[in-house]
Amino acid sequence: MTPTAVLGTGALVAVGVDAGSTTCKLVGVDASGAVAMWTLEPMTPRIEEQTDRMLTEVLAAAGGASGLPVVATGYGRKLVRAADRAVTEITCHARGVFADTGTGGTLVDIGGQDSKVIRIGPQGAPVDFAMNDKCAAGTGRFLERAAASLGVPLDDLGPTALGAGREEPISSTCTVFAESEIISLIAHGAELDAILLGLHRALVSRVLAMVRTVGLVPPLLLSGGVARNVAMVELLGRDAGTPVRLPSWPQLMGAYGAALVAARGFAAGCDREPGRVL
Amino acid sequence: MSPGAAPTPLAQARYHLGYQVAGRATLRVQRLRDERRLAARRPRPGDALLPTLASMARMKELMTGHYLRGRYVPGVRPVAWVTSGAPVEVLTALGFFLVYPENHAALCGARKQGAAYCVQAEDRGYSRDLCSYARTDIGAVLSGRTPVGSLPPPDLLVCCTNICQTVKWWYEVLADHFGCPLVTVDTPFLYGQAQPHQVDYVRRQIEEDLTPTAERASGRHLHPRRLREVVVQAHEASQLWLDILDRSQHRPAPMTAFDGFLLIGPIVNLRGHPETTRFYRHLLAELDARIAAGTGAVADERYRVLWDNLPVWYRLSGLSRQLAGLGVNVVASTYTYAWGELASMIDPDDPWGSVARTYLHPILNRSTGHKLDAMRGMVERFGLDGAILHSDRSCKPYSLGQIDQRDRLVGDLGVPTLLLEADHNDQRVWAEAQNTGRIEAFVEMMAAGR
């Protein structure tokens, strides 16, 4: 478990819970809309109990605050018993990223189970989106499975791929078939880093197809756990032809947006002055 | 019924007693009971949808009566199986009983039996990539099962390529199975208005191929006066259907597109019959009464939305309730409009030419740009806040171009647009959690944009 991080000194006014498929995140905001506290844990199947416990811990760490508005997002959003309202990840990620970066643009969120591209308007409202949610290819799971079959720690994937001198193209667009292709490449003596570079390229090409569906309006923003992977950030920017801009904590943007909805309601453009560092 | 054969006395007696006397009387009693029940219903606090339109009881009587009649019609009337875009006026004037396999498939879909029939076809080698209407129909034919009891076998098959090219091969399968004549009416794809030579091409197929083949199959001759009567009824009913759909321009709209997906039954299945015209007059009056009372179909109509493409039959009530619960009324649909928007083309004084022109212009036989223009027009006329484009895995012609159409609706008109991935009849394609999330995100997008 990642310990609860206390960042600011302001009192909590609202909490956002992002019950994702891989991790569960909680963010508390203060009256200015800044992140005052956050916590992150791997997701367990007992979503109700886990989110109850995490919320209790966050509130205890905040000096025993109670009665705060709570908004839940993520795939498990409707199972968060303490939430006053469930709001989709589309709205929450757009809200969180806009408040953090102060800009609209095209947001790519690559999570553990799905990936989405959200066009954020100049006022911070989501104006269009596309989702890949019926197939593991194009999601963080694609890299997780590849890391497991290659025996490479998840955190080493990106740096290893970027260090490759050449690239082995991965033609499979399916996670399961890609695994077979990796095994075949290994059997033919291909280098590990070259395979990894090809894998990252395959994921980037799937994501960019979705970006084209929505239409790329710079800046290209990236949120979700996969934003921690340096190769994804580098290749996505390179292949899109525009640099990728990361929010302060990409993985927390859904929970942050949920907390902002809890604190300030739905309408876009009502958050604190955009662009302030969390 | 063999070509030109006279009705047998036994079949006639069964038809008279089973359908005309007992069947119709039973359905009438059921309808009166349903109407009383529906009229007595009052909205309960918290209900997202208003009580069902009383006209639904009449629609049920008409459609159940149609399928009931189908059970008794063999040996009494000639039977034709036709595609939804087939020029049926000629057939109705010749006294054919019509079966619409697409409508029958939709009925199976609405009862959540679509996939079960699809599997019957797939087990016999038909690809899962084929249209789920075709698979449902072929599955029903090959298994000999149907939720309506029985379907009368065809004496004639008529398919028209104005909705897709799949029908051509689908109907060849049926022709092979039933061993009856098949007429294919070929309609050139239109990139603008139909040219005179294109109208002439279709008119000649109807006049010189379909009509004599249908005359041989029925053993009757087509009387111009009877054809005119049918065209008059088709024209009036189509115009009424268009007026009914346009009533949803009122705020709040008196009905939803989901109501329309069901109420469309008679204009599709019983086109050219006087009872269809009477039914739509009755429905229009009920909608006008709702408008006069300021009553909307959705209790709290906050967002007015367009639906593009076929309905998702197996999720009709679920989607309707979900959207109404979020304050959304789907007030317009390109699908329901397809049976009304061509009303002005039907001219009883020029039955052959106008029938040819009408069946050339369905939305599926026209360019993707035409559909975009139609949707743009609806956004303005209905004051729409958003659009749901059902990306239908089974209907490629309808789904083609939706990504570009969505870009234009979002980019040019600023209308939030959702691409909803599903299939009109095969419920195995539906992903509940994902689609629920997409719909909620779409509604949140409309809320955030205000």
Biggest interface, chains and residue tallies: A-B, 23 and 23 residues
Helix segment tally of chain B: 19
The SSE order of chain A reads EEEEHEEHEEEHHHHEHEH
What portion of residues of chain A belong to β-strands?
15-25%
Residues in β-strands, percent of chain B: 5-15%
Instruction: For the record, give the distance between the C-alpha atoms at the N and C termini of chain B, rounded to a whole number.
Output: 62 Å
Number of helices of chain A: 8
Nutshell version of this structure?
The complex is a heterodimer of chains A (278) and B (450). Chain A is built from 8 helices and 11 strands.
Structure description:
The complex is a heterodimer of chains A (278) and B (450). Chain A has 278 residues and is of the alpha/beta class. Helices cover 37% and strands 22% of the residues of chain A. In chain A, helix 7 links the parallel strand 10 and strand 11. In chain A, helix 6 packs across helix 7. Chain A is globular, with a radius of gyration of 19 Å. Chain B is an alpha/beta fold and 450 residues long. Chain B has one domain. In chain B, the strands form 2 sheets. Chain B has a 4-stranded parallel β-sheet with strand order 2-1-3-4, sandwiched between helices. A 4-stranded parallel β-sheet of chain B has the order 6-5-7-8, with helices on both faces. In chain B, helix 13 links the parallel strand 5 and strand 6. In chain B, helix 16 packs across helix 18. The relative contact order of chain B is 0.12. The model of chain B has no long low-confidence stretch (mean pLDDT 95). The interface between A and B is medium-sized, with 23 and 23 residues.
